[in-house]
């Protein structure tokens, strides 16, 4: 009898390309993945993994078994979803991911409401960037994502996924309190030409969007500080080291010495829940999306 956990480990290695990446996706240790693969090799009587320089590669036998594993795991997931739908029960394990400011601004209230209303529902929350969320929801590694994109730079959603808009979240310019434009009711990005900027790390969604947005306004970004946490960005703004762009959800109270100024050329990010369309019949998906909508309503 094939063990589902061993098949899941092999499938994760096939999808992610390494034992370490598979372990991260399944939230276990690399040694646990290696042990599952070793047991599966003994169970099948065939070699599944071969060393390839510093990495590994799947044998032909492993590739064949991984293909079957993908179909088996999908069938198991469908059976579980159908059973939950038949019972109408909100129960079982639901894996949810959110980007950082949504994890801080939306998920605490939504998860508390779900815990109180549905004590048999076990939700596990992960923090993930939007692109990774979409990949993992599409592959079935996550049940639900809370993702974002910007109206001036939409994020493609893979086929087979459904989504529901939760909130339109505007961004403001964060300026030092003594900046000449800090007391204006609103400003345009073009008025900030020549300013130094504080940004998230390169390759992150927020960094790429900031550079794209400034250049679209014909403002060449001169980035002086690269930090990911908004409180750190705001402290650097307060010290007069630059200005920042920050959406309102999840940014928390501003420290003394800074001002948030609305933009005349309004910038809005769309926050939405995303799930596999074939899992929509799960009651757990439905009530979680409803709880997220209710939490988002308090931020409109």
Describe the structure.
The chain has ten helices and eleven strands. By secondary structure, it is of the alpha/beta class. The chain has two domains: 82 residues, Arc Repressor Mutant, subunit A (Orthogonal Bundle), CATH 1.10.10; 210 residues, D-Maltodextrin-Binding Protein, domain 2, CATH 3.40.190. The strands form three sheets. Strands 3, 4, 5, 6, 9, 10 and 11 form a seven-stranded mixed sheet that branches. A two-stranded antiparallel ribbon has the order 1-2. A hairpin with a 2-residue loop joins strand 1 and strand 2. It is globular and about 75 Å long. The chain starts with a helix and ends with a helix. The model has no long low-confidence stretch (mean pLDDT 89).
Key descriptive features of the protein:
2 domains, seven-stranded mixed β-sheet, two-stranded antiparallel sheet, alpha/beta, 300 residues, 10 helices, single chain, 11 strands, Arc Repressor Mutant, subunit A
Question: Helix and strand layout, with pairings?
Answer:
Blueprint: H1 4-16, H2 19-26, H3 30-44, E1 49-52, E2 55-58, H4 60-87, E3 92-98, H5 100-105, H6 107-117, E4 121-127, H7 130-138, E5 144-150, E6 161-176, E7 196-199, H8 205-216, E8 222-226, H9 230-238, E9 244-247, E10 258-262, E11 268-276, H10 283-297
Parallel strand pairs: 3-4, 3-5, 7-8
Antiparallel strand pairs: 1-2, 5-11, 6-9, 6-10, 6-11
Helix pairs in contact: 1-2, 1-3, 1-4, 2-3, 6-10
């Amino acid at each position: 009898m094939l063990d589902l956990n061993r098949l899941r480990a092999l499938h994760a290695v096939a999808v992610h390309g390494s034992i370490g990446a598979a372990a991260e996706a399944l939230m276990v240790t690399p040694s646990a993945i290696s042990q599952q693969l070793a047991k599966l090799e003994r169970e099948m009587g065939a070699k599944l993994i071969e060393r390839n320089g510093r990495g590994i590669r799947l044998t032909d036998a492993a590739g064949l078994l991984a293909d079957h594993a993908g179909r088996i795991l999908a069938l198991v997931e469908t059976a579980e979803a159908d059973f939950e739908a038949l019972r109408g029960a909100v129960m079982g394990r639901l894996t949810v991911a959110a980007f950082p400011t949504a994890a801080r601004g939306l998920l605490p209230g939504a998860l508390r409401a779900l815990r109180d209303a549905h004590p048999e529902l076990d939700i596990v929350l992960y923090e993930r960037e939007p692109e990774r969320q979409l990949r993992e929801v599409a592959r079935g590694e996550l049940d639900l994502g809370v993702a974002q994109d910007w109206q001036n730079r939409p994020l493609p959603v893979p086929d087979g996924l459904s989504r529901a808009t939760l909130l339109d979240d505007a961004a403001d310019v964060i300026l030092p309190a003594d900046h000449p434009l800090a007391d204006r009711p609103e400003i345009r990005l073009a008025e900030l030409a020549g300013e130094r900027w504080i940004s998230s790390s390169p390759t992150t969604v927020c960094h790429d969007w900031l550079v794209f947005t400034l250049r679209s306004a014909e403002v060449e970004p001169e980035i002086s500080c690269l930090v990911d946490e908004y409180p750190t960005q705001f402290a650097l703004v307060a010290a007069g080291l630059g200005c920042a762009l920050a959406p309102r959800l999840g940014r928390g109270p501003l420290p003394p010495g800074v001002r948030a100024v609305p933009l005349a050329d309004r910038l809005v990010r769309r926050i939405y829940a995303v799930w596999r369309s074939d899992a929509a019949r799960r009651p757990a998906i439905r009530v979680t999306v409803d709880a997220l909508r209710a939490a988002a309503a308090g931020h409109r």
